[in-house]
Amino acid sequence: MDYKKAGVDIEAGYKAVSLMKEHIASTMRPEVLTDIGGFSGAFSMKRFMGMEEPTLVSGTDGVGTKLKLAFLMDKHNTIGIDCVAMCVNDIACAGGEPLFFLDYIACGKNEPEKIAKIVSGVAEGCRQSGAALIGGETAEMPGFYPAEEYDLAGFSVGVVDKKDMITGEGLKAGDVLVGMASSGIHSNGYSLVRQVFTMSREALDRTYECLSGSLGETLLTPTKIYVKALRSIREAGVAIKACSHITGGGFYENIPRMLKEGTHAVIDKNSFVVPPIFEMLAKDGNVAEEAMYNTYNMGIGMIAAVDKNDVDQTLQAVRSAGEKPYVIGEIVDGEKGITIQ
Fold first, then answer.
1. How far apart are CA 139 and CA 110, in angstroms?
2. DSSP strand E in the chain: where?
């Protein structure tokens, strides 16, 4: 008896690392001090010593049951983008610049080519956000995960000068809410998705006139990364007063997180385009509108609150970063919370 006969193939692990190296190399930043394969990743903070009070911000998350669709579709090269997005978007919400990212893949069987595809998506997410992929772990766990399945999670660290943190403290009545279009469902609410739609390869391969691809391709569309858009707003000289990443809990849970006491967000639900996949989900699953807004992003993945005099500059900055902006509402005086009308 040896480790391989027990279900853990060390040689497959070596091959997986070899296959992923080129993807990891494409994410490197000058501050990275170590090569892949070491016991830890090192990142120099020298460039940020000019900040008045350099402050680290961090985020960690996974992809959740969206992975089940990747298994069914046998498509593994984009799910890593979702993992990175869920972490770096939260960092950007605080005004931070993502610096580096680490991933964790746990699988029932280490198939080097599949692992490399997963990491290629992680690397793409890192490139989109400007973060370096400086380390990770692939854990082969036979008997814990089915051979064809895996879990994916990650962790990111960013930096911001404390005086530039987005805290919501300056929020006031009259401020305007600028929303940025999502790419679809992103990475939340897939337990409900899997109850509404038939989870078979035949059903997922089916095309619909209202969708740009098959149902499965639409559901696997990667989460948008908004790091560049938020940076573009700041570089335009606009102060982002508050920011919300619309993830699990939709509008009703996430927007209040950006508000300070005594402020209330009013959202005009007719001010932005709701992607067809949400309409299909609501209709086929008989999901009430309030429940949809309490679960999904409904077409808005990120919201920034700015002064009313900065709206035009903000819209232009978001467009210049390649994203689609909408003026979706405003801040009024009142109890902390939201009204969708």
1. 8
2. 54-62, 97-107, 132-140, 150-161, 176-181, 242-245, 263-267, 300-306, 325-333, 337-340
CA atoms of 106 and 119, how far apart (whole Å) = 13
Neighbours of 328 (CB within 10 A): 23
Mind listing the pLDDT tens digit for each residue in 111-142? 999 999 999 999 999 999 999 999 999 999 99
Structure tokens at 272: 């932005």
Count how many Cα atoms sit within 13 Å of the Cα of residue 215 in the half-sphere of its side chain: 21
CA end-to-end span of the chain: 66
Task: For 151-210, write each residue's pLDDT tens digit.
Answer: 999 999 999 999 999 999 999 999 999 999 999 999 999 999 999 999 999 999 999 999
Q: How far apart are CA 285 and CA 74, in angstroms?
A: 25
Cα atoms found within 13 Å of the Cα of residue 224, Cβ hemisphere only:
24
- Could you tell me if 258 and 244 are in contact, meaning their C-beta atoms sit under 8 angstroms apart? yes
Spatial distance between the Cα atoms of 319 and 264, rounded to a whole number of angstroms: 27
Euclidean distance between CA atoms 183 and 218, whole angstroms: 9
> Are 229 and 219 within 8 A, CB to CB?
no
For residue 19, the number of C-alpha atoms closer than 13 Å in the C-beta half-sphere is 18
83: part of which helix (H) or strand (E)? helix 79-93
Question: Alpha-carbon distance 127 to 100, whole Å?
Answer: 11
Judging by beta carbons within 10 Å of its beta carbon (0-12, 13-18, 19+), is residue 24 exposed, middle or buried? buried
Instruction: Write out the two tokens for 134.
Output: 């400086």
Q: Distance between CA atoms of 303 and 328, rounded to whole angstroms?
A: 9
Residue 204 region by backbone torsions, left for phi larger than 0, else alpha for psi between -120 and 50, else beta: alpha
